[in-house]
Every structure is written in C-alpha cells, then in structure tokens.
Amino acid sequence: MLDSVNFEIKEKAKHVAENVVRPLASEHDRKQEYPWKVKEALAESGLLKTWIPKEYGGNGLGSLNLCLVVEELSRACGGVGVMFAVNALGSYPIILGGREEQKQKWLPEIANGERLISFALSEKMAGSNASDLKTLISKNDDEYVINGDKKWNTNGGVAHYYSVFGVTNPSQVGKPSAISAVVVEKGTDGFELGKEEDKMGIRCVPVRELYFRDCAVPKWNLLGDSEGKGFKIAMETLDHARPGVAAQALGCAQGAFEYASRFASRRRQFGQPIQNHQSIGFLLADMSTRIEAARQLVYESARMIDAADKDPSLKAKANKMAAQGKLFATDTAMWVTTEAVQIFGGYGFMKDYPVEKYMRDAKITQIYEGTNQIQRLVVSRHVAREATSLKFLDSFIPTIDQWIPEELLNEVKK
Ligand SMILES: Cc1cc2nc3c(=O)[nH]c(=O)nc-3n(C[C@H](O)[C@H](O)[C@H](O)COP(=O)(O)OP(=O)(O)OC[C@H]3O[C@@H](n4cnc5c(N)ncnc54)[C@H](O)[C@@H]3O)c2cc1C
Question: Does the predicted model carry a pTM greater than 0.90?
C-alpha cells in the first residue's frame, strides 16, 4: 500500500517520464547522449531532492520514494532510471559517512540539481571483491594524494563530484580497514577521464574509466572523522542503493510488459488478436504476476532500508531484503523484457520498435551494484545464520545415525 505522499511523488515522476523522457528515449539511446533536457526537468520538478535529508536542502523522502521515481522513469527509459539513481548512489557516501560540514557543503547543490555526483569504487581487478582495491590515497601534510585507476564510473564526465574509494593503509591491503573514501571535484589537477564506454544498454548515461595521477585533494575531503571507514561506507551505500537498481529493473519490466500487452491486443494472426492464443495470454498473465511480486518485494525492501535508518537493529534484515529485492526484480526484468521481444515476434528484434531497448537496458541490472551471484551469496549467508535459530525443528529431522545403517556409518566416519 502506498500513501498520499508516495502517490504524489509517483505522479510527478510519471509526468516527467511521459512528457520529457519517453519522447527522447530512442534518440538518446541511438546517439549515446546524456539527456540534459531530462536532467533539467528533474531538477525543476524537485525530484533530485527526493532522498536527500531535509536539513541539507532535500525532501527527506527516503528509499521508497526514491524507488517510485526510478520505477516511473525506467518505465519510459531504463537509462534515465539510472541517470537519476546514480546521484543517490554517489551521494549516499556523504549522507551515511560524511561529517556535518561536508553534508552542508555538498548535499544542497546535489539536491537542487546544480551538481551531479558519481560513485567510484570498482577497479579493473576489483569488481565483486571490492575490498581488493589498488588505488592509493596517501596523506601528505594537509592533503590526500590519489594514485590509481577506477573502472565503470557511471556519470563519469558529467558529474561534478566523485566519491572515490581507495587504500589509505597499505599494510592492511585486502582488508576492509585499509579503505577510505574521499570526494574529488571534476577539474582537480591529476584527475583525468578515460574514454566513454560503448554500451549494450543504458546508453544515455556515460560510463568511463577515471585516472588519478598525484591528484591532491584537501584533507577535509576525507569522508568521516578518521581513515579506514571507506569499506563500511561503501557497503552501507550499496544497501541503500540496491532497491533503486531493483526499481530500475521493475520499471523496465513494467514498460516492456505494457508495450507487449498492447501489441498483443492489436496484432492479429490466424484471424484474431494474438492475446487470444492461450500461450500468449498465459505468458502475459505470468509476466504481470511476476512483475507484481517483484514490486511488492522492492517496495518492502525499500521500506526496510528506511526503517533501519531509524532502528539499527533492523540493518541485517534490511541487508538481506535489499539483496532479495535486487535479485528477484532484476531476474524478473530480464525474463519479462526478453518475453516482450518474443511477443512482438520479428518486429521485436528491430530497433524501430521500443521493446528491444528494454531488454538491453534490463541486462545491466543483473550485473552492477553487486552481481546477482553476489546477491545470492549475501542471501545464502543470511539463510545459513537464520537456520541456527530453527533448532526447535531438530526433533523432527532424523539424525545421520538414524538414516544410515550402522555398518555404512562406520565407513562414513572413517
Ligand atoms: C555499465 C556499468 C556501470 C557501472 N557503474 C559503476 C559505478 O558507477 N561505480 C562503480 O564503482 N562500479 C560500477 N560498475 C561496476 C559493477 O558494479 C561491476 O561490474 C560488478 O560489481 C561486477 O564486477 P566485475 O565486472 O569486475 O565482475 P567480476 O567480479 O569479475 O565477476 C565476473 C563474474 O564472476 C561472478 N563472481 C565473482 N565472484 C563470485 C563469487 N564469489 N561467487 C560467485 N560468482 C562470482 C560474477 O557474478 C560475474 O558473473 C558498473 C559496471 C557496469 C558494467
């Protein structure tokens, strides 16, 4: 169930999506061009304030409302969904780990759309294993000097601020305590942008390598009050951002489903609309059902993230649900968008029709902000831990001694 604030924010996002995003989606995709007009519309509508706390110029509307915006935008264009959400990903390190004066300096400019931000964690050799960073952040009088390369930076080049993660304690390399985060401004000496990647989907938002060569930033830019907090900040950021990726997937699934169901009601074969052929009708029923199931899980995981911000005892539950929501919604999106192409038949394979783009945009949601293999790892660890509280079931489960004849048991024990 959504409340009146949720509906209001959803309507506002839908307005931007239908009036500005959808009409330009195909062009931005084809040209691989950043949608500046969309960014201006988002800033004007105040939607970039959604997740930023009120004290820092935002609307303080939390994760669920962020998801509602991302879902509506992605329903029209999956690329715009992430072009919006990446500003949340980039700013959460400041919201969750920054000092008061840092929040006051950086967050209001992001909330009003004057400045864009990105999140620079991944490296060529450190993707899923984000604790294995090689970028060095060394202290030098009142500066931190950054040396290293970052891979896959979404918003790279268009962002003014970069939340950059690296090693401040080389003796601890490979351990979370080695890592710190600093904010780097575009234009700082020694900070260079690599080429823009030519991507399968989400083509309207740039993804670039970042190079740091003796790039010095004021010591003040270290997030938090001491070194070694970066890994915790990164992991908490990803927990907060995951429902946003799930919402991006949900929007892609919904958008593709709507095209497919409309097409199925108009396309005729064997003398009737193809939706009347049971295999198409039932496929649409399954698509709709899985999307609704994903929606409930995504909204609930976002609510849990919001609740855990107020009550830290809920953090473990929020971590598990954020992983589950991302996993289920993104797998659903890949399945739904692929089947939507199938429903369009040969037309679905052509760029003249909008469904193939949903399939291309959906794929990345299974990969970034933790691949779905990593989400399964996270969920499986929670499941294993939770199993220890199920001891009351033990008397109903035969022990190994009861299953196996004694002579075989002796063999096993050898
Ligand atoms: C378009 C795009 C945008 C991105 N944007 C950003 C960004 O803005 N900021 C940022 O920091 N990063 C970003 N990333 C990086 C993204 O988060 C990583 O690509 C992702 O975490 C996977 O890392 P990897 O690509 O190095 O794959 P790897 O970690 O090398 O994984 C390769 C394969 O092995 C699997 N695998 C790895 N470890 C395990 C394991 N323990 N168990 C089972 N399977 C495993 C993975 O699931 C995957 O299938 C982006 C990536 C892309 C493609």
Answer: yes
**Type of residue numbered 354:** P
Cβ–ligand 1 distance for 207 under 6 Å, the answer yes
- Report CA(378)–ligand 1 centroid distance (Å): 15
Report pLDDT digits (tens) over 275-318: 999 999 999 999 999 999 999 999 999 999 999 999 999 999 99
User: What is the number of the ligand 1 atom nearest to the C-alpha of 372?
Assistant: 47
Could you give the residue numbers annotated as active site?
A: 369
Mutation choice for ligand 1 from 152, 330, 363, CB with most ligand atoms inside 8 A:
152
